[in-house]
Amino acid sequence: MDIIVCVKRVPQTAEAEVKVDSSGKDIIRDRLTFDMNESDTYALEEAILLKEKFGGAITVISLGSVEAEDTLRIAMAKGADNAIRIKAEDFGELDGYKTAQLLGSVIKDIKHDIILTGCLATDDYYAQVGVALAELIGIPHATLVTKIDIVDSKAHAYRELEGGLLEHLEINLPALLTIQTGINEPRYASLIAIRRAAKKEIKTVGKADIAGGEIMQHSTLEELFTPPVGKRAEILTGSMDEIATKLTDIIKGKGLL
Amino acid sequence: MVDIFALVEHRQGVIRDITYELMTCGRTLAEKQNAKLTAVLLGYNTDTFIDNLKSQAHRLLVIDNEIYKEFNAETYQMTLAEIIKKQNPMLTLIGHTAFGYDLCPSLAVHLGIPFTTDCLEIDVADHKVKITRQLFDGKLNAHVSLRENPSYILTLRSGSIPAQEGTLSTEIEKIEAPVSAEPDYRKFIEYIEAAVGEVDITKADILIGIGRGIKDQANIALMEDFASAVGGVLACSRPIVDAGWLPKDRQVGSSGKTVKPKLYIALGISGAFQHIAGMKNSDAIIAVNKDPNAPIFNEADYGIVDDLFKVVPVLKNKIVELKQAKG
């Protein structure tokens, strides 16, 4: 079973302060750490588990800057066989549609039974690329998948809906599935494997290699800004003891102590 | 007159809340654009749905057929593509839900229509669309514009526009399904209900919600101790369940449980909107987080900007002392 996994290198912003840079269209990146997008790590792990069960090859693809090659090498250290970087520096501003077209133009020439992507990237939150990509290359898809079974060369995908309800679907292969976090336990790459992966080749694809029609963009980011403060919390200050006293007073005031 | 479409979302025989939010959004835009709002309903045995949707839009377009009983992105896409091609709405609104995730991008790509997802605010002027959305774990907002086109497709985030009562008189129009069957390459099999666990977090008066900020599985015990000292129950955000540190039935949020305790103490939870959706109606919210810009502070009543591992032990001792003094 040949599998393609699309991964993205993103800033880890869940627990970091994020500030807008002077262009007003990007964030200040120098104090942030970068890693593979969270749901992509689950997609990659799922691909490795499928390969362990059914054999075949895994190709990881990332549309990113040269630093994305670090992310691709980690993926190879974990078990991916081939890696391709599409040179983001060649293509200017990217939206979900443009990203899907670029990925599609590379993927159409690679043999695949399943394409896996994360269900959403934590930097832009669009959740567009996987589904748009499936449509562009003409294969069925399912999003937010938390379990995959392969039965009689069809995929049984379990989608996570609101409230924890699962939707069980049967999908013909080849198919594209976008993977929700928690589907498996992503492995860590061993040091030896990382060292070995450092020597492996990463194929790069640039503007000159992308044949065909015009790559179209649908949306343009005009401006980034700090969200307007809604119902802002009353921030408690003072020594830790004073804060704890204030808190217990609040809890007591609610009749809960 | 130009048309705005808003897609009705239903599941297991019930219209979902996002539908009324989409209708509210659609009515506002229709009024501003001097356009007509059309609620588009694909379903089976739709009489109750039709009753519930009267007054929501200028027109209710109904396609009643067994193939729409359950949501199947492919069946919906084939159907909507036909209707959109024929009727040319300037805008089609879909929920940014598990349903919309599966449907919007492929429908828009199929039709070659500009689209974007997860909108918080939508503004249309002179046929140009500008939207507001969140990026970087909800820490920043962005204005995004779309390529100018006669038609657009957008998804709206749940809870971003409060639903209002509709007061329109709704013309009902029933049409035949333009497709005849669910495609054989993607078939709906069944729904599987979430497993019921031993603790029901929706029943607790006090919930201690823990998130990524607790760092290590070893710290769960500390949090359990704190929860029992306060007389509360431990709940969590998604990353804790993903890591396998607490069972799924403890998860608060759009894909977990919706809770309304008297007190919710959020420890190391930054406040992704999926989590907020599940706990924002708590009577009182206290949040502890190191990042002063964490979105959780926009929902909390009281906040402490500090390391939760400094706050929790002191607070726990205070509460234990107080309880002992009371005897």
Give an overview of the whole structure.
The complex is a heterodimer of chains A (257) and B (327). By secondary structure, chain A is α/β, with parallel strands linked by helices. Chain A has a single domain (2-209), classed as HUPs (Rossmann fold), CATH 3.40.50. Chain A is built from six helices and 13 strands. In chain A, the strands form two sheets. In chain A, strands 9-8-7-10-6-1-4-5-11 form a nine-stranded mixed sheet, sandwiched between helices. Chain A has a two-stranded antiparallel sheet with strand order 2-3. In chain A, helix 2 (68-78) links the parallel strand 4 (58-64) and strand 5 (82-87). The longest helix of chain A is centred in the N-terminal third of the chain and has 17 residues, at 38-54. The termini of chain A are far apart. Chain B has 327 residues and is of the alpha/beta class. Chain B has two domains: 3-174, Rossmann fold; 201-325, Rossmann fold (3-Layer(aba) Sandwich), CATH 3.40.50.1220. Helix content of chain B is 29%, strand content 29%. Chain B has a seven-stranded parallel sheet, sandwiched between helices. A five-stranded parallel sheet of chain B has the order 15-14-16-17-18. Chain B has a three-stranded antiparallel sheet with strand order 8-9-10. The model of chain B has no long low-confidence stretch (mean pLDDT 95). Strand 12 (219-225) of chain A pairs antiparallel with strand 10 of chain B.
